[in-house]
Amino acid sequence: MELAVWTYEGPPHVGAMRIATAMEGVHYVLHAPQGDTYADLLFTMIERRAKRPPVTYTSFQARDLGGDTAELFMEAARDAYARFKPQAMLVGASCTAELIQDDPGGLAKTLGLPVPVVALELPSYQKKENWGAAETFYRLVRACAGPRVARAEGARPRANILGPTALGFRHRDDVVEVTRLLARLGVDVNVVAPMGATPADLARLGEADVNVVLYPETAGVAAAFLQRQHGIPATKTVPIGVGATRDFIAEVAALVGVDAGAVLAEQASRLPWYSRSVDSTYLTGKRVFIFGDATHAIAAARMAAEELGFVVVGLGTYTREYARDVREAAKAHGIEALITDDYLKVEEAIAALRPELVLGTQMERHIAKRLGVPCAVISAPVHVQDFPARYSPQMGFEGANVIFDTWVHPLMMGLEEHLLGMFREDFEFADGAAPSHLGHAPAREAPPEPVAAGPATWAAEAESELRKIPFFVRGKARRNTESFARERGLTTITIETLYDAKAHFSR
Amino acid sequence: MDGLAAGPGCGEAPVLRERGQREVFCGLTGIIWLHRKIQDAFFLVVGSRTCAHLLQSAAGVMIFAEPRFATAIIDERDLAGMSDANDELDRVVTRLIERRPDIRMLFLVGSCPSEVIKLDLSRAAQRLSKRFSPAVRVLNYSGSGIETTFTQGEDACLAALVPEMPAEPGSARSLLVVGALAEVVEDQFLRLFAALGVGPVRFLPSRRAAELPAVGPGTRFLLAQPFLAETARLLEGRGAQRLAAPFPLGAEGTTAWLRAAAREWGVDGAKFDAVVAPGQARARAALAQRAELLAGKSIFFFPDSQLEIPLARFLSRECGMVLTEVGTPYLHRQHLAEELAMLPAGITLSEGQHVDRQLDRCRAARPDITVCGLGLANPLEAEGLTTKWAIELVFTPIQGFEQAGDLAELFARPLVRRARLMV
Model pTM? Predict the structure, then answer.
């Protein structure tokens, strides 16, 4: 038993719903008690979908348990087929139905429906949402995908785009961006799946030269199957960030045998120049904490370090399936990865590391707000705000532009930071002022940490000197000075100590 | 005015009973308002990841502070017998109580999985109560979807409190108002009862778990919510008597509800009229502005909170709306007798749900406004139907004279919005 106040991922059948809802012509019959229909509102409210998810719930009740819940399932499956006429059906159980062991797959088989019926075994008490999505997509691909079709000599290369789902973080716009990128390379898109695909489209997956895997969390298993069974190679690079996008272009070009030279020669993103422009000097060495799904966290760490000049002080994920990749990425930044789905542990880590920027999920946004640290959202779980009306991809060169703006927005602008330092002694200057373009409450100076042993006291003149340091670095100065004093066994911190510590810690 | 005498009504009208897919929340959802109401109580759901996900999805953004609810997620080790589920529960509860020393009452809330694996939470509650007594009282109830629909979770929670209520010594007469209300509404009612000379007045649930009201043969109770069948039964078991009344929605409903208590206390008619007149006048004035917009408009209710019948009565009689189908998850004929008598004849009452068939009926009826859950609202809007989210009717203060205008406004706003938008 695990105590959960909040979870990063839903149960695996919600992952299956993300696949079914993304596709056309698929219907999911879910053996589930009354109440599990709450999941519909994730799609209709958070994503503002105009259609109900294609899911029929059996809605069994306590009084049915003594009777025939299996018959209830059969009736629901029969009715769902008659009403919705899908090209393929998914059948499965939610957590409660798993316990009553009615075997939806076996029951559905006896109905003799004239369409493929894919039985999902999603162990609710072991696995979670992303695993459920990946497993469902894999099962559908396995059931529907036809053999690889030999491509005519000299034909334009074709790619499948795999991974975008309903309720995905910017999946809608990433597909558009990556499709444009492939077009610039002269690569046509064969099938995008699951988003917008029908089972008939899945049957055509074999007519492509390469599978572009946008989100390994949802498409990794299916892509590995297509590589193994049908010999279609899959991309490994996720094109988030300028560097990764360039790597992705080179990878696709090599896999399909086209020349990427012309595309790579274009200066297609504003990010490199924006990062080099002098206003960005203030970004140098900002301490950033990153947490999200594996794909977005790894990509964010690379961008933060290589493309914005931040220092990655924390990197973690709730995606245990890709924990190894995140650990490797963390090692590259000289840190230990945080692999957990307990947000209280994430909160502890953020509080201990005291970053200057948090890149996380909606939960880290709340944590950062509480701690008074700027934050930008980089990953699911999603919120209604993560479905903006405007075009807002994360992938490709436009995605890099979007990310630059998104991450820099919560911070103080360079010139502004400089002016605050210059005018901090002006009587009209409000200490603790927030960046002028943000209306909300100013970041609070974190309260001083309790000191373990032998706390040094601040002499009055040292304390007043400390107050002349800009508030956004004052907490760090205080901590550094106190630890400097502690290490040296000093009992009083004087102005001398303050500047000795500054010299000691200056990088 | 006395609404109880009005019209032939729906008292004996046939009810369309359906079963099939139910697009409703389970009783766990009640935790979202109950944990705000009982301020020193904590709700621990013993369930699955689905339960935890439901709570955070339905509660939306309530994670600004650490909420007073959580889920003990059952995992495969508990199911495979590799660990004793009771030991695990004790461990989780101990950790929780260490973390939250401010908790005075802990509810272990049963879920579909805990019911199906027959985890005995009442025994667990007794065991843990003994261990943490007197600092923390541990109670249990079921909010599972296999047993409760949405607001029935509050009924189950309040029913769990009834045996804990102290006995009223002697036969002293008191009024108990049963059902969670917003504090502002409680205070308004307290002022009205004081002016009428009705009292002492107590509320269930109380704001603090340690201050449960006393109950005994002298207790008369008014239901403030229509979904409290089990709680009422248990209160009657302790000698309390229910005062039959319509529910306090709108000027008419509030008047009749107050009158039921006034009669019991022998308040004379002139005094009653004088006390309620200012509130009635304000309610009618506030309603008049919205009623113009709502009059003649048709409305269709999908089942949600059991508030549907009182709401339909209010909208039809005080706002002039035309009722098409009024769906409710469960119809308690006795508690709703006064309400049913006030409904116009010829409407469709439905109980239970087969959502696809009900959607067919709704599309055929093309109502001016449809009251439904969040899973249906945007899809129906996209089909050109105007909707009102049912859940807002549970979370918003709508009872009493001063809220009558706000209640009508909840239905008027979607219509105004649709009329304004030119895109």
Answer: 0.91
